[in-house]
Specification:
4 copies of one chain form a homotetramer. Chain A has 186 residues and is an alpha/beta fold. Chain A contains 5 helices and 5 strands, in the order βαβαβαβαβα. Chain A has one domain (5-182): Rossmann fold (3-Layer(aba) Sandwich). In chain A, helix 2 (58-69) crosses helix 3 (86-96).
């Protein structure tokens, strides 16, 4: 039987009606039983500044503790200007410091990018992967998840109504469960 | 005779003793006479959230106005986790919105990346360039400026003491002046 | 009146029925009068090997001469494995050597990526741009051209039948003409 | 006891005195006993052309068979024009086709980039990683291996003489051995 794994989900948008947040909720509902997805909020993290490493804001410490407690990490993000939104990059940076104490190290991870256009956030997806390589987050490779045309995938209550996307997300989160198990430490 | 061009300089680190800030000061001193470099501070910009586009924080509006008033833009940045620091990406994102009203559009630009290691921030440099392509900021191509080993380039007062780096920065900012002139609108 | 500019067009696929080649033909037909697009073939270039720089194959020399004679360069390419096809990268590499004698230097350029999928070759497009930055090819930024769904854009004779794509390509090649004029040397 | 794993080593340069080839030899000597590194030559692979998929050249088939027979893959490559050399990309492309029959699928992999400059081939390293993600090659993340200053690392016979580089390569290939074991199929 599979071990339970808690997954810290990071949503790369602060917008109330964020499509990425809706995709995150859909993934939580589609995940295999042993994978418990929970969104870790990042909107209250002040901007990273190395000068504060000695006396970090309480929100930084709380965030790092939540990542450390998780068995895996999942990023669901829009693309801003062909790259990762600042709010998500800030969470990445805060979790990675102080030097030598990264909370991300060794956690298996996965990336979903979401956009209203056709390209599905490819630029954000791969820029994020470059950071995750550096942070030693083994990141699911296949299937890739570029969710385009996000404006037409949900109903008024935010529920996913597109069958093709549901199929892709289910395949994705199932592969992620296997990947996360393979890379559990200890 | 060359026209005067005001250059908005964005420094991608909030650290008081930031090497990137020192490089920015060195560039200001080395620039041709007609190029006036001035740092535009970004540390007080709250995290971008599209929900605030209707009533933007005063700091966002002030920042956008400064970029609009500039004739060119120059980015001097460290690399965090093989990509652009969040604080710099946030400035990029804020300047780019609301949709269709980007302050960056058409401004000639250039990128300098700075690190204590050998690689000189290559990852941050090129991720930033991908955003600048999207924002229609014609970006200086050659010479590239990857400033490595930054820990050994300055004296205790923050003045640049390395001759090879001074030579590179002078060549860089001179080429940027010509590039900025070529791409002035109107 | 605008000066005539000859554009060397490089197609990144050897396939006889290549969609990229069809897009190249469409662009040639849509280009402003002063822009003369001509495909420079790259299929007969043997693989680059620095050991041959002293006595280069005749095909390498002929290719370099054609690039040198052009006033601008345009790349139309599929994506292979999320990057640039080898056949196109080989043309880039051959044109760039021997060291210090790059045929690409200073030529204004543009990139169109083409794929049957939705993403439109974003990965190839931006990997190619990174090389062009290094080669000092000032590359058109906007509009970007990611041509997706290429399997449904042409008739049996290879003529472009999709109006939206025609509109995009026309806007693109018109912007390229202005860009190429701005960056003509001398 | 560890299972023996055969590693197909791909060298991204055809130059006789290639530094990448020398690094590959050094890695073979430093590898743990159960990892057998063998260079698979790629210089005789003609340029990929999808039209030949029905009747592939014998060299393509032989190459694909060697990759399929390997338990892991290791890429050691220079950087050409801030990206992957064409000769290496061609090997990637040939191994990946015909559609649905990729020889790379699921093989654990690793990347070493090599250059005479300081940056150590960062651009080639990460462009290659983007292709490997697509090809479902789980790729070693840490330690990264950017081998700079390659002109000063070897003696006249091509033997590695730099202790710091030897230490890095040993750490790298040891981590790769563990990574390759984790990702063996079946």
């Amino acid at each position: 039987m599979s071990k339970d794994i808690s997954v810290a989900v990071i949503v790369g948008s602060l917008r109330k009606e964020s499509f990425s947040r809706k995709v995150a909720h859909a993934l939580a509902a589609l995940a295999p039983k042993n994978l418990r997805l929970e969104i870790v909020e990042i909107g209250d993290l002040s901007m990273y500044n190395q000068d504060l490493d000695g006396e970090p804001p309480a929100a930084w410490t709380a965030f790092r503790d939540k990542i450390r407690a998780a068995g895996a990490v999942l990023f669901v993000t829009p693309e801003y200007n062909r790259s990762v939104p600042a709010v998500l990059k800030n969470a990445i940076d805060i979790g990675s410091r102080p030097y030598g104490q990264s909370a991300w190290d060794g956690k298996p991870g996965a990336v979903v990018s979401v956009s209203v256009g056709n390209i599905g956030g490819f630029g954000a997806n791969h820029h994020l992967r470059q950071s995750l390589m550096f942070l030693n987050v083994p990141t699911l490779q296949q299937p890739e998840a570029y969710i385009g045309g996000a404006g037409a995938l949900f109903d008024e209550k935010g529920a996913l109504t597109n069958d093709a996307t549901r199929g892709l997300l289910e395949k994705f989160v199932t592969a992620f469960a296997a990947w996360a198990e393979t890379h559990q430490k200890g």
